[in-house]
Amino acid sequence: MKTAGIVLAGGQSSRYGRPKMFEIYNGKPFYVYSVHALAENKLEPVIISTNSLLADGFDKTEVDLIVEKDTHNGPLFAIHHVMKQYDEPEWFFVLSADIPFVTSAFVHRLLQHRHSDYNAIVPVHGEKLQPLLALYHRRCLPVMDTVLQENKRSLMALLKNTKFKTIPFDEEERFFININSENDFKEYKGLK
């Protein structure tokens, strides 16, 4: 069952003030943690979806780089854009580029549920759905087309219109910590 990995790295980082995916944590840029978590599970290709302003900042040796022509249209648009360009993968494992605590074990745990007849597999952290760290089947494409034509940009709009499975995670699990501001980074920097 061919599964690709997508790292969403085209955001504006407006709250952070500069492209946060390039911030260094324990010697590696944030986005590299997502790339490695996907690659260590033998997902291929691993694709970084970004925009032309950020594209030159990524190490392209381990990844395919997809540059969105229409920038800042949100994660649903970015995932749709990537899926349309890759015919072979059935599943696409999506991770954002600002989650330096994500691990290959987290990715492995979700991958165990690919054999279901669901169109998406979404972790729940505490009581909150985490659609930016989830698996999406190619069957989502027609629904994505419809939702985007209705000018809806959120992944929640997709999930409201497709069959998805939730996987619970304890609140203390740190995979889901995303860095939105420099204060967030200072707060979590000491974590290993």
From TrEMBL:
GTP binds at residues 8-10, 20, 98. GO terms for biological process: Mo-molybdopterin cofactor biosynthetic process. Mg(2+) binds at residue 98. Keywords: Cytoplasm, GTP-binding, Magnesium, Metal-binding, Molybdenum cofactor biosynthesis, Nucleotide-binding, Nucleotidyltransferase, Transferase. It catalyses: Mo-molybdopterin + GTP + H(+) = Mo-molybdopterin guanine dinucleotide + diphosphate. Its EC number is 2.7.7.77. Belongs to the MobA family. This is Probable molybdenum cofactor guanylyltransferase.
